[in-house]
Design goal:
single chain; 5 helices; rod-shaped
């Protein structure tokens, strides 16, 4: 991506060195393509200054890099690699243990959720049966109320007949007693049905409370499972970031080593030139 900024000699120097390290000729066009700004003539003038400095740097005598510097770099590289490897192995083991524990907890939660769902289904089935039974009881009660109304109507008719037909007083009185008995039985049956309906309502309320409690437990278990999965995902993200940091560290060490090798080669070339120069001076 092109970098748009104000041109300075320092920026031109850095860009030229970056292109040179990549094996690309630091020409005005290449530099302008990287920076995305600057005229050809301005960039060329600054590149000429950079090239002059490069020539001056090449003529500077640089002593050989001492052997202990290589040994220090190699020792630091090994220590950093071993340290990172031990830490990575430790965190990988901890992550594996956490993953195993979460898998066991997840299986237990799923089993408990399945059990709770099965219990909920059974309770719903019982509730449906109770509703059906309650409907049937209501139907029976309505039927009994209809029969009671019929009995009351017949009783009224019998009373009218008793009032108007005195000669049949005994017979009507007997029939009235029979009707009163039937009425009493119907009232007792109605009271019994009412008590049974009240008991059924209490049991239905208890079932509703149990279902609400089970639903609350299911919701709580589901939230715990989602939370554990989020923690597991966070651990995986941290491990990925750590691996990326390790790769970046290795790349930095590799770049440092390559730069050190290039400097060593440059020193060797300069040393050889100095030897040739001294040899020529001796011959003169």
């Amino acid at each position: 991506m092109a970098r748009k900024t104000e041109l300075t000699q320092e920026i031109i120097n850095e860009t030229a060195e970056e292109l040179h390290s990549k094996g690309v000729k630091p020409s005005p066009n290449n530099v302008r393509e990287v920076l995305g700004t600057g005229s050809y003539s301005t960039i060329k003038q600054m590149l000429d200054v950079w090239k002059e400095r490069q020539k001056e740097d090449e003529n500077v005598f640089i002593p050989d890099t001492p052997d202990f510097a290589y040994r220090i770099v190699d020792k630091l590289h090994k220590e950093l690699y071993l340290q990172n490897r031990k830490q990575l192995d430790s965190e990988r083991q901890q992550l594996d243990l956490s993953r195993q524990e979460m898998e066991v907890e997840k299986s237990e939660m799923l089993l408990e959720i399945n059990n709770l769902e099965e219990s909920s289904k059974n309770l719903k089935g019982e509730l449906t049966k109770k509703d059906d039974e309650l409907t049937r009881l209501n139907t029976d009660l309505n039927s009994s109320q209809g029969k009671l109304e019929n009995l009351l109507s017949e009783s009224n008719e019998q009373k009218i007949k008793i009032a108007t037909l005195s000669e049949r007083d005994k017979q009507q009185t007997l029939q009235l007693k029979e009707k009163d008995l039937m009425l009493k039985q119907a009232e007792e049956q109605e009271q019994s049905l009412a008590k049974k309906m009240e008991a059924d309502k209490i049991q239905i309320n208890q079932l509703d409370v149990a279902i609400e409690r089970l639903n609350g437990e299911l919701t709580k278990k589901g939230d715990e499972l989602i939370k554990r999965e989020g923690e597991f995902d966070q651990k995986e993200i941290e491990l990925t970031q750590y691996k990326a940091d390790e790769v970046k560290t290795k790349e930095q060490i590799q770049e440092l080593s390559e730069k050190l090798n290039r400097q060593t080669n440059d020193i060797a070339v300069l040393t050889e030139r100095e030897k040739q120069h001294l040899f020529q001076l001796k011959e003169k």
